[in-house]
Amino acid sequence: MTSPQLPPQRNVANAHRVRLGDLADRSGAPAAPDQDLLARLAAVPGLVRPGVSHWDMTTRLPLHPLSVENAYGDPRLLHDLAVPGATFARRLDVDVVVGAETGGIPLAVAVALTGDLRFAFVRKPGYVGHEDHEPRVRGAAVAGRRVLLVDDAVSTGTALEAFARELQHEGAVLVGAFALVDMRDVSTSVTATAAELPLESVATYLGVLDAATEQGVLDPTIHRLAVDALLNHWRDDDPRWSDLTQRPAA
């Protein structure tokens, strides 16, 4: 499937920037972010980490990738993060909550427990240590059932599309996806599945950075530079990279 051509987001320098409001949502208008929950998420120690980094040793990033798994360490927070997922599942009349291996599994378990729903997990295609003959989905049966896929984050939707294929191979009816962080707001393009499948999240990536700055986790100058780098794709020789070091929060 080819990625749809989507209109710009926030900055005209990014001609193909995804605008989340233009992505299809067949479930109706999503709930507004819970600002208190977002603040608690952004303040989790080690989740937002300043510092220039690389993703898969290729893409240069103005911040370290979000360590969203750190949010799973607090059982009360994990439960509260699962509540919007359970609400979304009820709205979609879901039969089974399916966790995406591996980062989506703890959140999916919490969503299933909160919503009193069956749980399963779907294997990551090509994951080292799996054999081809092993089941793609384990846990509750998904064939002919309406399922909600849960992952820690969604960005371009490549992983989402791969998990969707695995579920469809098992006869599941994938009706939506729920993520802790929706990173499509900093993606230059998304897959057709990520554009068309009803998807809700606790927060967007830029929303997490905004909240982290408000909580004193990110220095406002670092925040401003990081967002500019993300949205405008700084060249590797841009001198502003040297400014992206953590400063004491004002």
In short:
The longest helix is centred in the first third of the chain and has 17 residues, at 75-91.
Q: pLDDT average, as an integer?
A: 86
Number of helical segments with 4 or more residues: 7
Q: Could you say which overall geometry the principal axes of the C-alpha atoms support?
A: globular
Q: What is the N-to-C order of secondary-structure elements (H for helix, E for strand)? A: HEEHEHEEEHEHEHH
Largest sheet entry: 6 strands, mixed
- Strand % is 15-25%
The Rg value, from CA coordinates, equals 18 Å
Number of strands: 8
Spatial sequence of strands, sheet with the most strands = 5-4-3-6-7-8
Explain this structure to me?
The chain has seven helices and eight strands. By secondary structure, the protein is of the alpha/beta class. A six-stranded mixed beta sheet has the order 5-4-3-6-7-8, with helices on both faces. Strands 1-2 form a two-stranded antiparallel ribbon.
